[in-house]
Amino acid sequence: MALATNAMKTALLNAYAAQGTWISLHTADPGSTGASEVSGGTPAYARQQTTWGLRRRVP
What we know:
24% helix
């Protein structure tokens, strides 16, 4: 029996899509507080919004 069925893969991809709306960079382990986020730079660093689409099924 496979450990990761197509249905499970689809469910995980959809869960990740629902959770991750912004991506940020960190210079060290951010832990549970989001510490050590990058700042400054030229052009100025800014968090980026993600555009995940829901998967209907995994091929």
